[in-house]
Known about the structure:
Strand content: 15-25%
Helix content: 40-55%
Distance between the termini: 36 Å
Order of helices and strands: EHEHEHEHEHEEHHEHEHEEHHEHH
Oligomer: single chain
Radius of gyration: 20 Å
Mean pLDDT: 88
Number of helices: 13
Structural class: alpha/beta
Largest sheet: 12 strands, mixed
Amino acid sequence: MTKIFRTGLAGALFALALLAAACGGDDKSVVTVYSGRSENLMQPILDEFERETGVSIQVRWGSSTDLALLIAEEGDQTQADVFISRSPGPIGFLESKGLLAAMDSSVLDLVATEHRGANGTWIGFSGRKRVLVHNLDLVPTSDLPSSVFELTDPIWRGRVAIPAANGSFVDWFTVFRDQYGDDVAAQWLDDMVANDARNYPNNVSIVDAVARGEVDVGLVNHYYNHRMAADAEAAGREHLAANYDLSDEDIGSLLIISAATLTANADDREAAQELIAYLLSPSAQRYFTNSTYEYPLAGDVEPNPALPPLTALSIGSVDFDALGGGFEATEDIIQRSGILSQ
Length: 342
């Protein structure tokens, strides 16, 4: 499997692998996936799909934003049949350029309308809720705020961690901008910087820092702490971090969904949609919730018992076509805030 590179040897090898698969001397279907979700998360599901269907999967891994830009650059020459994104935002970018195709109703109907695109070009397959993770010894639940807007108060000076360059934060802040406007969103981030918010590279490093007492609280996706708590329990170690849900209607409780789409250039639409439908199958949905602690979005699969009931602000209420060009503006605001140097 190949990581994302724009040019050079890796790109050439990827193209040769696709050519070999296409000319392998049999009629085996081949689906090329550009995946913005990580290899360790998606590979088990893709392997199982191959075993069950006989469809061969070729994967290019990378960040969702980089892969969306690459598909746009490749245009109608892209090898991608299916694009898997950490959120529908990069998909909105591709839709705005006419690079996606509507899926069949038999696939779209696998989820509720709020978890799929209005034009039928994307479908959500798992959910990650934004939460505030806190150290149990340093911050009792009774002292925690009900809104991210309260984190700019002086009482939280130097006590809050943010993964400002991480994709999940960029996704979340783009929706923040859409819901409140650029002025309010930029002011909130500027106020966080003025309040000495601490920047960490990703969600995992924040949960680890909170558990160790290096920082009191942090804004993260919910499932990282569940995974680390399970690992600690299995190893007989104490884990002092816990998730805290902000107010149900607060932007800090946003439910961000992973999404898949069919590209307009897909060679085998039937096999590509079969893969997308497989992500919504009971076995795949059970994998996402039981192995990775995400929220299932399809069928009658119940969330992992460790997960609280899902009452969060839903990302399905957001117009992702409107967000399609929003990532550049988001990154500009983040850069100008100075949080990356905190």
